Amino acid sequence: MSNRSKDLIIIGFIASFWLALEAINQGYFGINFDELIYFVYWLSGLRLVAIITFGWIGFWGILIGYFLGEVFLRSYSLIDASFLSVLSSLAPMIAYKYWLNATNKQDDFDDVNFIQLCYLVFLHSFLTALFRSFYFYATDKPYGVDQLTMAFTANVIGSFFFLYLLMFLNRFNKRLRKRYHQ
Fold it and tell me: Which pTM value belongs to this model?
């Protein structure tokens, strides 16, 4: 299988995973999280994990999944979905690249301490909420400080959930490898 085929499979998986989680958020599977997504937006964590793990391939997976979710599950217009999907995919990419540069980390997630993780999560959550607010402001759609604050908070909590899960799995995998390769 060529690299391009693998990349397309990864993009398709990320987009499908995004759509499945968005469908759960919207109550399509009989589970209603309408109120919970205002406090824990777990898809924010998925954005960061996709960018950390796959870089630009993750960006495209999030962009496609977000776009399809906004159009088919939330009934947004094509223009709104297009702009919001680009902004929501760019925010974690910008935050992660800036974070790598500011912390002098390599493109991995080894030896990340809590302060560094907070920096990444807060930066990503701030950029995501800010980009979304700017878009709604530019298009004359009501989106005030309350929504900005709620989006920021939900992004922070959802990101921490996913990133701690990623760190746990990374450390668990390393211990398993060490144990079985001795």
Answer: 0.84
